[in-house]
Design brief:
265 residues; alpha/beta; disordered N terminus
Length: 265
């Protein structure tokens, strides 16, 4: 009996020594950061893939099964997570919920429909600047080390390499924008680039705000605004309709460029 128990303890010790941390994340950028810092020491389940609108995405059964085995769920502070979290917690009460955006100063989104008794919504697109990405990375790094202290050296090496990539990206963006005038404006369909604009002294001109359909009168105002600001292109994203942007672009003879803020690249 003693030999059986000893063998079992040895087996469990070996299993735990090679066990990976099971992580759940909301969006692809988080997945990329966890992969960079955790490498092969983590298993990652992504909830809302590229091309889906997280606000309307419903996690699949296979994803909920992965949640049952998760140690940590890294949230990003998105409004869409409010619908998911009760289900996730009910599925796995031992899973730790960590806001990966903790420490980032949130800004508010512009709104056309805020009344006196309403508060403006916080802009959840915090991952669109290198400065914020570094903060998210720090939160991920500290969590992984806390769960797996024996591999701290590996996480630290990965984290330092991650920060260097972030630093180089910041330098590249500054080089690209070095000849731009301060407060240069760019037009977007959905206002997902507020933090990016603020960090690099730009201004985004959103067509749509708070997911509401753009009315013909508002579209005409946007045409005039685009014309007066010499807008050369409109940025859209695959998660939203491009109809309104295409109307403006056709009117002005300019390009519609698709770029997703949840694409990790």
């Amino acid at each position: 009996m003693k030999k059986v128990l000893l063998g079992l303890f040895i087996f469990l010790g070996i299993t735990s020594a090679y066990a990976k941390i099971n992580i759940v994340v909301s969006i692809p950028p988080q997945q990329a950061y966890v992969e960079e810092i955790g490498k092969d020491l983590v298993n990652i389940t992504l909830l809302a893939p590229i091309g889906t609108n997280p606000n309307f995405y419903e996690p699949k059964r296979s994803q909920m099964t992965a949640v049952e085995q998760a140690h940590v769920y890294f949230t990003i502070g998105g409004n869409f997570e409010k619908a998911w979290l009760p289900k996730m917690i009910n599925q796995n009460k031992n899973m730790e919920i960590i806001d990966s955006s903790s420490g980032i100063e949130k800004t508010t989104m512009k709104s056309k429909n805020i009344s006196d008794n309403q508060s403006p919504k916080k802009d959840v697109h915090v991952w669109t600047t290198p400065k914020n990405i570094a903060i998210i990375g720090k939160n991920i790094y500290e969590t992984l080390v806390r769960y797996d202290i024996k591999n701290k050296d590996q996480y630290t090496k990965n984290y330092e390499e991650f920060l260097e990539k972030v630093r180089k990206t910041d330098e590249e963006i500054k080089t690209i924008f070095k000849d731009l005038k301060k407060d240069t404006k760019f037009m977007v369909y959905h206002p997902a680039w507020g933090y990016f604009a603020k960090e690099y002294h730009l201004e985004q001109l959103p067509i749509e705000i708070e997911g509401k359909e753009v009315k013909p009168k508002e579209l005409q105002k946007m045409v005039e605004k685009a014309k007066s600001n010499n807008v050369k292109a409109i940025l859209t994203q695959p998660e939203f309709s491009t109809k309104g942007a295409q109307v403006i672009a056709n009117e002005l003879g300019i390009k519609v460029v698709e770029i997703s803020p949840i694409n990790p690249n």
